[in-house]
Write a structure and sequence with these properties.
Elements: E1 3-5, H1 16-20, E2 26-28, E3 33-35, E4 55-57, H2 67-76, H3 92-95
Antiparallel strand pairs: 1-4, 2-3
The chain binds iron/sulfur cluster and FE3-S4 cluster.
FE3-S4 cluster is lined by residues 5, 9, 12-17, 33, 50, 52, 54-55.
Length: 107
Amino acid sequence: MTFVVTDNCIKCKYTDCVEVCPVDCFYEGPNFLVIHPDECIDCALCEPECPANAIFAEDEVPENQQAFIELNAELADVWPNITEKKDALPDAEEWDGVADKLEQLER
Ligand code: SF4
Ligand code: F3S
């Protein structure tokens, strides 16, 4: 199983998650992070670290966010690896909790 980054990460990208991942399996786009499903070892350390509560175990991803399972796999193959925390996006607090941000996703 893998963990999955979902909608509420978009335009927030706090990056607290990357610091705790023992296998460095986060990949970074302009305004979203994803987890590589073949590299994640299912340790669950990242889930409580996300201030936006955007990380779920694959079998607990909400019904309306199932598309993010495939999206993490797809984008992890093309985006660069990220292993260190950086500043959140400038408008992170304003976007935290806004529903359905998928159309804001930059690739
Ligand atoms: Fe990394 Fe563990 Fe989170 Fe998977 S569950 S992304 S291995 S911290
Ligand atoms: Fe995104 Fe949460 Fe990590 S907002 S960058 S999944 S800490």
